[in-house]
Design a protein that fits this description.
The structure holds two protein chains of two kinds. By secondary structure, chain A is mainly alpha-helical. Chain A has helices spanning about 10-30, 30-45, 85-100, 105-115, 125-140, 145-170, 175-195, 200-205, 215-225, 230-255; strands spanning about 50-55, 60-65, 70-80. Chain A folds into two domains: about 5-115, no CATH class; about 125-255, no CATH class. Chain A has a three-stranded antiparallel beta sheet, with helices on one face. In chain A, a hairpin with a 3-residue loop joins β1 and β2 (about 60-65). In chain A, α3 (about 85-100) packs antiparallel against α4 (about 105-115). Helices cover about 80% and strands about 0% of the residues of chain B. The longest helix of chain B is centred in the N-terminal third of the chain and has 24 residues, at about 1-25. In chain B, about 50% of the residues are buried. Chain B has one domain. The radius of gyration of chain B is 18 Å and the shape is elongated. The chains are: A mainly alpha, B mainly alpha. Chains A and B meet through α2, α3, α5, α9 and α10 of A and α1, α4, α5 and α7 of B.
Chain lengths: ~260, ~160
């Protein structure tokens, strides 16, 4: 036993800290089981009991003092806009383990969380190039040639950049997805119109793959398997709507370019 | 045989870079990207081999994602991250984007009467692609959450392969 464990923590501050951690994890792309485990680990270490109702749009939790269950606080906090960032999951997990090992006081842990929040994502142009490369390679994996790769690369990179600027200007994310899908598929559709590649329809199909909401889709099923039904439903609805937006963007391209046999 | 090995190697190397790129999109730490590439390439190549032996798309995706999920636990110890940080972008290389997209596109086509008269098999098409999409998604999700399902919700930090065997 070290003296850090005897540190007296205000229950309100504790609830705020756990909510902050939780909603931040959800918006970074953690599934509900991970949020629960990380928060529960820290709450238990500091001698608090912890019950939670997790959702994709917010988090409702009750924290009570383990030694005195009469002292309890119930709070709700909404989730900030979703921004997938796996490094955050890794860092918060490390933070929770360091807390459990007794290396961090409550004040230090709070400071550490603020530090994690400022952790930068990859620059947007690196992401755009990576997205282009991966879509181009996926076209090749499915059987396209170098021309299809180039079309998918240019299409996905341009689309990713335009999505970044649309989201940056605070437009609706569904609108951003429709516009990005339209721009990407329009550029890739030129491959079909000009008939350059070996399998031009592959370039068209893979150029929008970067828009697929893979993390919410998979998290939705993981939540379902682990018993967080409401979180699973809301995530699934969000992911399905994004998929639908991609389809709308591509339909616009197909109508304008007149690719009827796709 | 040589052809198969070459094809598998090509599949592995392409999927390696695809997985790395998805890792960048999802913000996986730079130090862990090589592990993401290895897992993604390995999973995709395994699926390629299984498909070559005519195992079936859903079954081979399921096996590949379980293998990625299990080796992700070992990989997580190596690069000190939670397994999901690695297995999520690795499994995305096998995401059924094409089938999901075909389902949606066929649904949109359903609104046009002339297409409906022309393509009578559009409803079976939608059903087939939707079932494929959901089955593949569940196969991938089981692979990623393998530690939670098979190890009774233990944290991956407590799972050591050397201690299990």
């Amino acid at each position: 036993m070290n003296n850090l464990q005897n540190e007296k923590i205000n229950i309100n501050e504790m609830a705020t800290f756990l909510l902050d951690t939780g909603v931040f994890l959800v918006s970074s792309g953690a599934h509900s089981g991970r949020v629960w485990r990380n928060c529960n680990r820290m709450a238990k270490h500091w001698g608090f009991q912890f019950n939670v109702n997790l959702n994709y749009t917010g988090m409702l939790l009750t924290v009570s003092d383990a030694s005195n269950p009469e002292v309890a606080v119930t709070r709700f906090q909404s989730t900030p806009p979703s921004h997938i960032h796996m490094a955050v999951l890794s860092k918060v997990s490390h933070l929770s383990w360091r807390v459990t090992d007794g290396d961090l006081s409550f004040a230090d842990a709070k400071q550490e969380l603020e530090l994690i929040k400022t952790h930068a994502h990859y620059p947007y142009w690196v992401v755009a190039l990576a997205v282009g490369l991966s879509c181009g390679l996926l076209a090749t994996l499915a059987g396209g040639n170098i021309v299809d790769l180039l079309f998918a690369f240019v299409a996905a990179t341009t689309g990713s950049l335009s999505r970044y600027f649309i989201v940056k200007n605070k437009f609706n994310i569904f609108l951003a997805a429709i516009m990005a899908a339209f721009i990407s598929s329009f550029i890739a559709g030129l491959d079909t119109i000009w008939g350059l590649g070996a399998m031009p329809e592959l370039a068209l199909a893979t150029s929008v793959l970067y828009l697929i909401p893979g993390v919410p889709l998979l998290n939705s099923v993981i939540d379902l398997l682990e018993g967080y039904y409401s979180a699973s439903l809301t995530r699934g609805l969000f992911a399905a709507s994004l998929l639908f937006c991609i389809a709308i963007g591509m339909t616009m391209t197909i109508t304008i370019l007149g690719i009827s046999n796709f | 045989m040589i052809d198969l090995i070459l094809a598998v190697l090509l599949d592995f190397s392409l999927a390696f870079f695809v997985a790395c790129c998805w890792g960048i999109l999802f913000g996986t730490p730079f130090k862990a990207l090589w592990m993401v590439g290895l897992l993604g390439g390995f999973g995709h190549a395994l699926r390629f081999v299984l498909l070559d032996f005519e195992v079936g798309l859903i079954a081979s995706t399921f096996v590949a994602s379980i293998v990625v999920g299990l080796s992700g636990i070992a990989g997580a110890h190596k690069v000190h991250t939670p397994p999901v940080v690695l297995t999520m972008p690795a499994c995305i290389t096998m995401i059924p984007g094409l089938y999901a997209y075909r389902t949606m596109l066929a649904l949109i086509k359903l609104s046009d009467k002339s297409i409906l008269d022309h393509q009578t098999d559009i409803i079976p098409n939608i059903a087939h692609n939707a079932v494929l999409t959901f089955s593949l998604l569940i196969a991938l999700a089981v692979g990623i959450s393998v530690s939670a399902i098979f190890f009774r919700n233990k944290s991956a930090k407590d799972i050591r392969w050397s201690k299990l065997i």
